[in-house]
Amino acid sequence: MLKNYILVAVRTLRRHLGYTMLNVIGLALGITCSLLIFLVVRYELSFDAHHSKADRTYRIAVDKMSQTGPTYTSGTPYPMLATFKTTLPELKPATHVYNEEGGTFAITPSNGKGAIQKFREDKQVLFVEPTFFELFDIETNGVDGKAALKELNTVLLTKTIADKYFPGQNPVGQVLRMNNLLNLKVTGVIPDAPATTDLPYLMLIDYESSKKVNAFMNDSWNSTNSNQQVFFAVPEGASLKQAEDRLNAVVSKFRPQQPGEQERYVFKPLSELHFDERYGNFSGRTVSKTTLWGLSLIGLFLVLVASINFVNLATAQALRRAKEVGMRKVLGASRTQLMTQFLGETGLITLLAIFVSVVLAELLLPYLNKLLEIQIQLYLLKSPDVLLFLAVTLVAVTFFAGFYPALVLSGFKPISALKSKVATARTAGLSLRQVLVVLQFTICQILIICTIIVHNQMEYFRSAELGFDKDAIVTMPLPSGKAKDLMALRAQLEAHPAIKSTSFALAPPSANIDMNMSLRYDDFSVPCNFDVNMKLADEHYLKTFDIPLIAGRMYEKNDTMREFLVNETFLKRVGETNPQNAIGKQLQINGGQTQGRIVGVIKDFHLRSLREEISPVVMSTFSQFYFFVNAKIEAKDSKAALAHLKQVWSSAYPDDVFDYEFLDDAIARFYEEEARQSYLFKVFSVIAILIGCLGLYGLVSFMVTQRTKEVGVRKVLGASSASIVGLFSKDFTKLVLVAFVIAAPVSYYFMEKWLQDFTYRIDISYWVFLAAGALTLLIALATVSVQALRAALANPVRALKTE
Description:
Blueprint: H1 2-15, H2 17-45, E1 57-66, E2 69-73, H3 80-87, E3 94-107, E4 117-128, H4 132-135, H5 145-148, E5 154-158, H6 159-165, E6 175-178, E7 182-190, E8 203-206, H7 210-213, E9 228-233, H8 240-254, E10 262-269, H9 289-316, H10 322-330, H11 335-372, H12 384-410, H13 414-418, H14 424-428, H15 430-463, E11 473-477, H16 483-487, H17 490-493, E12 499-505, E13 516-517, E14 519-521, E15 532-536, H18 541-545, E16 549-552, E17 563-567, H19 568-574, H20 579-582, E18 586-589, E19 594-602, E20 617-620, E21 628-633, H21 638-652, E22 661-662, H22 663-668, H23 672-706, H24 708-716, H25 721-755, H26 766-793, H27 796-801
Parallel strand pairs: 4-8, 5-7, 15-20, 17-19
Antiparallel strand pairs: 1-2, 1-9, 1-10, 3-4, 3-6, 3-9, 5-8, 6-7, 11-21, 11-22, 12-21, 13-15, 14-18, 16-19, 17-20, 18-19
Helix pairs in contact: 1-11, 2-9, 2-11, 2-12, 2-23, 3-8, 9-12, 9-15, 9-23, 11-12, 15-23, 15-25, 15-26, 23-26, 25-26
């Protein structure tokens, strides 16, 4: 019996090849998208799940509340770990991890001959303690990580770095010089860090050596570095709330609360490291779980749209198969047997679509990996979860897409079917078909509206005024503590006509590098209840970035902090309404270690992405912490400018590698996630519309079949082709408008929630909805018109002869 069902199904599908191909294409597109989305969601949810203590591992973070609102950080003061171990000895193992975001590495030939090799890395280098290997499952291929990093100035290289630095050699025992500060002895080679970790590393270095690399590393409770973090494990059944309370009670003795301020150290699970952008992680990449669920919903929608398309096409075929059904019933076939036959046909089509989807997914994965900057591979036979996903998809789509058409086809009365007089009400299922079309185009319009809004927000990011000039500015990282070597060559830097100006600073105006400090203003007896963002820069900073000075003057050249600039937000926080009133007022920062007076007020500028409000800023000089040189160049002569900058830079730092980046590229990275979302929305919208058009094509085909005689009579009575097309288009216009009425408020709700993540955002305009509705209507009418026009141009005599 099963063999017979399969043979009949194959013959039927071959006989109606066009119908089969339309269904396969529609389902394959939907299933391909859902499969790729499944792979992405699975990949993102797997981050750091490979550690055996993952469900018991936590990170110390800080939640701070002040009059300006909440701030969050995962950085801790250096003394935190010792205090933590003393206060909570039961929470172990506990370890420091310090992340240095790249550096310069030099290798001197062991025989003293040959040129020094220099490498520049801009990714994660982790400084870790031996307990790091107790807490995290780091693959070492037999290397004892704890022993390898027990001594000072030792390093474990990943295989990729070892092959890059020492091709064809055994690197163990070799020496790397890092940032011209540390001589690191290679004690082993370990496998590369897995792609699914938020603790990525190119190499692991003993933790004590970080104190030489990081000038901020000290025993003070007043300084916090977001790259300095503490991780620990908890035993089963431990009360985290009680442990938090005990730790905060002890820490409050070292970090007393300021008036109007609340600071609390909290324990955040490792499982949330990848998803909570408030605290960030060492990979620099977080993904909102809301985004993942939204992607999953889109994948479900696309399969749903494809299944609806199948239903429309299948029921459009109903009349063509009426005689077949009647003959089978006359010969004794039961309704159950007929439903089994038709569901089997649907299953074969779905199985074929899944096969095509797997092939398409394999071909598209490299492009998806490049777009999302991830590493996904489709090992079908080694991935039981993927096989399960495909099996569930096969069953679900077969049942959902095939059940209703099978029910309709198997319900034909034999006599009516053999006479081709099947009742319209039984085959059309008009109300259900209308609901399906409305649902299809509701989904399409939601995707189109979301695409337009995300695109407009991205355009706003690109065109928004940031408060400084970001065009044609080159930023070059400097070796730690060596800015003076290049500052002495400033005249040479600016000697080339393509170099307009240069400035040395801790960082550009917008950067992921922050130095936050508490302060006292004017009356030193009253501390301010907010932290300020310190911008350390030389006296050429405002000129280079074209930041307006609205009161006072620029501070004078100095190597240490003597004079200060403040921004407009700072004035608002201290209650000053007139910028001139702040000139001459005293500032005390860093716990009273530094004191000076305000000499100028600058206009506000954005320090990070437009998601965040502008913070209070204090600017001053401090050459020891100048880590970048910023150069304003002539855009039309950029190659000559870069060549000149490299020449002067290399003469100042012959042992280091010249590296640079354009500031506008660095700022664009703030919005990488949104840019990817925008691209994905565009792709999914096009696919949803394409599948929807296939469904419309099937529905119009059905209507044309049903109304063949009516079209013939109208033509004989003088109806024009345009009126025939209008006849068919009228009903679909109503359905698209109903879909618009549903899609507009739904998409507005979700996009309004999405935009709430941005402090600076666009307003959702009514034209977005009108444009999406008009575009959908235009596409629908074009699809309907193609098939309706064929009916309108057909010979009316043949139409009238049709039974």
